[in-house]
């Protein structure tokens, strides 16, 4: 099957937005569509025109900025029971979207026809036929989404095939088999897809025309998509990062490299494959969801090595612990530093900082011992690599002193006798900058916010770059919970400058002190990154 073309159909903008907690503006949708177009997917499903004003505006804007590579697709259901397609007002905005391709979904499962649509099996066939025939007469190309296909086929195979035959006879060009409930197993997908392939050929459809649309409710969306491709599917529908309703859709960031790198299919241009990790992270930024660090292929931990033996082996030959070259999909190898680290971890990790050490260097064992000692008291450098780089530079005498926090005070007050009243937080920070001591104060909606604002206020006159640093995550972990409110606390703070992210850590019996350390190091690392590897 090597070099056979598999068309990638992205539905992030429609099915992906059904994920709980995910919402896109029109501007967001336009940005994602443009990025997917540059990646080289074949189809981009933009939404259901007429279902909401946002989708209507999206298709209007896309008429003014057509895609360069992908085909834009508008989505809709079959006409309503008892109406003719030409008289159904639901189809008016579908035509007004002015896309060449239309995805129409219809019912494959007799259970849904009777209990969902509350109509007859024959009327459902007529709805499929009439809708597709009408849109085809309007010079539209139809992708027929056979909703609940696999459940429908297992329950009543004869009727399910009749629905597909109705779509075929009406002029549909593609037939996407949907595992809408996400519970079908790969061997079932394989067997049923093969039957559909044989049926379509019997009906005179000799060109590749089967698509697969899988959901991840059983954790099998990617496996099911691959099983369908092995047995006749030549279009795969899915979403970036697997976004979608309930447990999500087939993750195209896993589907594409599996098909292209492991199985020899052509999904996107080889030169574009190295953009996959970047696209994954860009889309996660636009939808405002934290990237899944442990996602296959594109996750930050996908090629992270922690154990000393693993690191040593990977240094000799990456094949020992990597199933593909991370660079092929735009990711990179990461050496993780923790209490499990060895000398190999330290050497490999500091190389990413632009520092060259040898095993015989005393600094190697010093850094390793410092790491183990600090992790013993609660630090976690695998989650705070910025703090680790500062530690390394401190050990090597190469840590620039942008500023020093001399002292701080934080206090909270309430104007109400009730504990539910408004609480005001104020912070005072004394810092040493370039030999000068500065005392500043600020208010915030909480003690950490007040501390952050006061610290920035003291530094921004010296380092204007700080205005571009912002907090993207704040995590607190109680390390010895049996000590109750006197427990040791670890704080992890993630920062961003809009281009990259970094995380710092602070550990203390006092949560504010831990937060202050992480805040200070976060600003310090951002300044260091701004003048990367400059000797001070």
Task: Set out the fold topology.
Elements: E1 7-10, H1 26-39, E2 43-47, H2 53-64, E3 71-77, H3 92-96, E4 101-107, H4 110-117, H5 121-137, E5 141-147, H6 149-155, H7 157-170, E6 174-179, H8 186-202, E7 210-214, H9 221-230, E8 235-238, H10 252-262, H11 270-273, H12 276-286, E9 304-305, H13 308-316, E10 334-335, H14 343-351, H15 362-376, H16 385-395, E11 404-414, E12 423-433, E13 436-444, H17 447-459, E14 470-478, E15 489-496, E16 501-508, H18 511-530
Parallel strand pairs: 1-2, 1-8, 2-3, 3-4, 4-5, 5-6, 6-7, 7-8, 9-10
Antiparallel strand pairs: 11-12, 12-13, 14-15, 15-16
Helix pairs in contact: 1-2, 1-12, 5-7, 6-7, 8-9, 13-14, 15-16, 17-18
EC number: 2.3.3.21
GO molecular function: (R)-citramalate synthase activity; 2-isopropylmalate synthase activity
Protein name: Citramalate synthase
Strand order of the largest sheet: 1-2-3-4-5-6-7-8
Structural class assignment: alpha/beta
Examine the coordinates and then state which fold CATH places here, giving the name of the CATH topology of the largest domain.
Answer: TIM Barrel
CATH superfamily of the largest domain: Aldolase class I
Uncertain regions: pLDDT < 50 for 5+ in a row? none
Task: Please tell me the CATH architecture of the largest domain by its name.
Answer: Alpha-Beta Barrel
Q: Count the E strands.
A: 16
